[in-house]
Amino acid sequence: MNYTTQMNAAKKGIITPEMKIVAAKEKMNIEELKTLIAQGKVVIPANKYHTCINVNGIGSMLKTKINVNLGTSRDWKDLDMELKKANDAVNMGVESIMDLSSYGDTQKFRRKLTKECPAIIGTVPIYDAVVYYHKPLKEITARQWIDIVEMHARDGVDFMTIHVGINKNTAQRFKENKRLTNIVSRGGSIIFAWMEMTGQENPFYEYYDEILDICQKYDVTMSLGDACRPGSIEDAGDISQIEELVTLGELTKRAWQKDVQVIVEGPGHMALNQIEANIKIQQTICQGAPFYVLGPLVTDIAPGYDHITAAIGGALAAANGAAFLCYVTPAEHLRLPDLNDVKEGIIASKIAAHAADIAKGIKGAKDLDYQMSCARKNLDWEKMFELAIDPKKARTYRQQAKPEKEDTCSMCGNFCAIKNMNRILNGEIVNIYDE
């Protein structure tokens, strides 16, 4: 290849095989796509060593993509279960999977994903360093943090969350401006604690150029982690969040200078009325780099239902320009999600993403909705099930309360407005009560 990354190819005017695939999926002119990649407004995360990948593009002018978090923890060590979650997510059409494993043989699991899983694979090297080195946090050296980044790149990871925006300056600003919920990012809290204990600069910030060289070598997309994302609506939009975002904007430019693709991560918990402004600020500061959001969760009081609070915020965020939604499950804030939690989280995120794509006017976004409306007008139940985001659940609901007459449902029966309008417009008599 006479290019290093997808961005480098685009800047040189080269159309890569991955660009052709994405252009076809998005029904987009390939020259337009190439320009957006060269500008950093679209990324195609595709590590050169992840050869089984089903390529997808991420950008606000493309269909909104969904990421699923999974991985082992000290209290939940079942790798087979995590692989089942990954397979289920792929079968449900999710574009990306992040391995957040924090216990066990993390490299074995990661390599299995990049060898067998067609989804975009992301990781957080900060977590893995703590597991890999098996020693107290304070004793991990700056060099060892960077070595883990290269290990993940060699293992075929397509994008990495690097908590580089929380340097000594942003950390000091955080300490001077107290928050209700402090730092809720796991990676952010780890690197903040390391800086406090060692007195050293964040190694990901200090050696950022070396990390960019690694990303360029393997074509790993940099996901700039938001260590200071708000963990409550009380902290949303505060000085710490905005201070870090400004730093991430500067780091985005530096990555682009080396032709490294960039995603910028965002909140977090945030009230509905702040979301649009937050997206617009990010787009300005980071010059249109794709925005990757966790939710946002629009209220703090719904444990057990946070897939809903996240879907509400995610739909609004994506409609205003966020490109990438990290799913949230009903288990958020409570425990590691099980298989059903994963499914519920994916469904909620898919609804949010699809609703946003309709609002943004993405080409073809309304096609399935039009077909569903036609099926409803025609009372074609099998077609409705076929088009549903979750066909099994839709079919089960109907079977659990079968109507007296197959052309209606148990809610309306003979009062069915669609049935009666179809008949009256066809010149038939509508009696309702004595039918």
Automatic annotation (TrEMBL):
Its cofactor is [4Fe-4S] cluster. Zn(2+) binds at residues 269, 333. Its EC number is 4.1.99.17. It comes from Thomasclavelia ramosa DSM 1402. Pathway: Cofactor biosynthesis; thiamine diphosphate biosynthesis. This is Phosphomethylpyrimidine synthase. [4Fe-4S] cluster binds at residues 409, 412, 416. The keyword Cell membrane does not apply. Belongs to the ThiC family. HAMAP family: ThiC. Catalyzes the synthesis of the hydroxymethylpyrimidine phosphate (HMP-P) moiety of thiamine from aminoimidazole ribotide (AIR) in a radical S-adenosyl-L-methionine (SAM)-dependent reaction. One of its GO terms (cellular component) is cytosol. The lineage of its organism: Bacteria, Bacillati, Bacillota, Erysipelotrichia, Erysipelotrichales. It catalyses: 5-amino-1-(5-phospho-beta-D-ribosyl)imidazole + S-adenosyl-L-methionine = 4-amino-2-methyl-5-(phosphooxymethyl)pyrimidine + CO + 5'-deoxyadenosine + formate + L-methionine + 3 H(+). Binds 1 [4Fe-4S] cluster per subunit. The cluster is coordinated with 3 cysteines and an exchangeable S-adenosyl-L-methionine. Keywords: 4Fe-4S, Iron, Iron-sulfur, Lyase, Metal-binding, S-adenosyl-L-methionine, Thiamine biosynthesis, Zinc. PANTHER family: PHOSPHOMETHYLPYRIMIDINE SYNTHASE, CHLOROPLASTIC (PTHR30557:SF1), THIAMINE BIOSYNTHESIS PROTEIN THIC (PTHR30557). It holds the Pfam family ThiC_Rad_SAM. It is an enzyme of class 4 (lyase). GO terms for biological process: thiamine biosynthetic process; thiamine diphosphate biosynthetic process.
